[in-house]
Write a structure and sequence with these properties.
The chain has about 375 residues and is of the alpha/beta class. It has 14 helices and nine strands. The longest helix has 15 residues. The chain is globular. The chain starts with a helix and ends in a 21-residue tail after the last helix.
C-alpha cells in the first residue's frame, strides 16, 4: 500500500482510524508533538483488540494507522491489531521513530509484528538523527522493504527553505531510487516544541496553526478565512481509549475533549457506532465542508452557543450529507499532493507520489 493511497483517503469520513498505542517512547526528540518519553500511558490493549476485532467486511475503515508515542514498544499488540484488521479487509500502516534500528538491524520481534502490515513509515529529521543515525535507519528500511512491505519516510524541518530538508530528501531519493515516498512537514509549536518553535510559525486568525493529520503532516499556515477541514474525517483513539473526531494534539491529549469532537470510547462503543457518529454528526459535517475558523475556534465552539447552533443547523440541512461526501470525493480525486500542499510542505508535496505501484504487494 503506497503512502499516497493513505493520504488520498484522509478527507473521506471514517475511511481510516488513527490509533494511539502508547504515549511512551525511548527517544527524547526536542520537537515531539506528543511530548512522549520513557514514561507514559499505554492505551488499554484488550479494549483496542475488542474494538478492532469488531471490524467486519461490510463495515470497516479502509486504513488503520498505528501511532504513539512509539507503537513498536508494543510489538505483540501491533501484530494482533494488524491481523484482526486484515481479517476484515482493513490495511494497517505503522509510523515509527526507529528506536530499534541504531545498529541498522531489525529485531525479529519487530519483523514479526509487521507481518500483517501493509505500510511502514519512518520518522526522520535532524532530531531523530541525533539518536538513530541516518545510515542505520536506511539499512533497516531496506530490510523491511525486502520483506514485502511498502515503506515511506515522514520528514520534519523548520521551514520550506530549511537546508536539512533539501539534504535528507535528496538522500532518501538516491538511496531508495525514488521507490520510497517522502512526506515533508514543518515543525509546529506543540508538545516539546511549544516554546522554541513558536517564533517560526505564522498563526492563523485565532492564534493557532491548523491541525495536521496525526502522524501524517503539519502545515505552513498563513492567515486565511475558514476553510473545509479534512482533519475531522478520521476518528482518533487517544491514549485513554477516548475517540475524538479531530487529530489536533490538544484535542487528543487534552481533557475533557470538547463534546462536539468526542465520538465515544473504545471500552463501550464499537466501530459501527463510532463510524456512524463521525459520518452523521451535523457539526462535523459543517467543519468538514465549510470550516469554523482556526483550530482554536473549533475547540471553543462549546463556549460560543450561537456558533455551535449555527454549525448544527447547517449540518442538519437535507443536502448536508451529500455535500460532505461530494467534498470528500473531490479532495480524494485531487490527489495526495494536493492535500499536502494544504497541510504539509507545499515545496515537497510531490514527493508523496514516489514509490512503485507494486510496493508492498505481498502485504497489502
Amino acid at each position: 500500500m503506497r503512502l499516497a493511497e493513505i493520504i488520498e483517503l484522509r478527507p473521506v469520513p471514517a475511511a481510516g482510524l488513527l490509533a494511539t498505542l502508547t504515549r511512551r517512547c525511548p527517544l527524547s526528540c526536542a520537537h515531539c508533538s506528543t511530548s512522549s518519553g520513557p514514561r507514559g500511558e499505554d492505551t488499554p490493549a484488550e479494549a483496542l483488540r475488542r474494538f478492532v476485532g469488531g471490524f467486519t467486511s461490510a463495515d470497516r475503515p479502509e486504513v488503520l494507522m498505528l501511532t504513539g508515542g512509539e507503537p513498536l514498544l508494543r510489538p505483540a499488540l501491533v501484530a494482533d491489531l494488524a491481523a484482526l484488521a486484515a481479517s476484515a479487509g482493513t490495511r494497517t500502516s505503522v509510523l515509527s521513530g526507529m528506536f530499534f534500528a541504531a545498529d541498522g538491524r531489525v529485531p525479529a520481534r519487530i519483523l514479526s509484528a509487521l507481518r500483517h502490515v501493509a505500510h511502514f513509515s519512518a520518522s526522520i529529521d535532524v532530531f531523530h538523527e541525533r539518536e538513530v543515525p541516518r545510515a542505520a535507519v536506511f539499512r533497516a528500511m531496506h530490510r523491511i522493504r525486502e520483506s514485502g512491505i511498502a515503506v515511506s519516510f515522514h520528514v520534519a524541518g523548520t521551514a520550506a527553505d530549511d537546508a536539512y530538508l533539501a539534504d535528507i530528501t535528496a538522500s532518501i531519493r538516491t538511496e531508495f531510487d525514488d521507490q520510497a515516498a517522502v512526506l515533508v512537514n514543518h515543525i509546529r509549536p506543540v508538545g516539546r516544541a511549544a516554546g522554541w518553535a513558536a517564533a517560526r510559525t505564522v498563526p492563523l486568525r485565532g492564534g493557532e496553526a491548523p491541525s495536521p493529520p496525526r502522524g501524517v503532516a503539519s502545515g505552513s499556515p498563513t492567515a486565511m478565512p475558514p476553510a473545509p477541514c479534512a482533519m475531522a474525517a478520521w476518528p482518533t483513539v487517544a491514549f485513554d481509549g477516548t475517540v475524538a473526531a479531530c487529530c489536533n494534539q490538544r484535542v487528543v491529549d487534552g481533557r475533557p475533549v470538547p463534546e462536539h469532537l468526542r465520538l465515544g470510547h473504545i471500552a463501550h462503543d464499537d466501530w459501527a457506532t463510532i463510524r456512524r457518529r463521525c459520518v452523521e454528526s451535523p457539526v462535523l459535517r459543517t467543519i468538514r465542508t465549510a470550516g469554523v475558523g482556526s483550530c482554536t475556534d473549533c475547540r471553543g465552539l462549546a463556549r460560543r452557543p450561537a456558533a455551535l447552533e449555527a454549525a448544527e443547523r447547517s449540518g442538519s440541512r437535507p443536502a448536508a450529507g451529500a455535500m460532505d461526501m461530494l467534498g470528500a470525493r473531490l479532495q480524494h480525486d485531487a490527489g495526495a499532493a494536493s492535500l499536502l500542499r494544504r497541510y504539509g510542505s507545499d515545496r515537497y508535496a510531490p514527493l508523496v507520489l514516489l514509490g512503485g505501484p507494486g510496493d508492498g504487494e505481498e502485504s497489502s
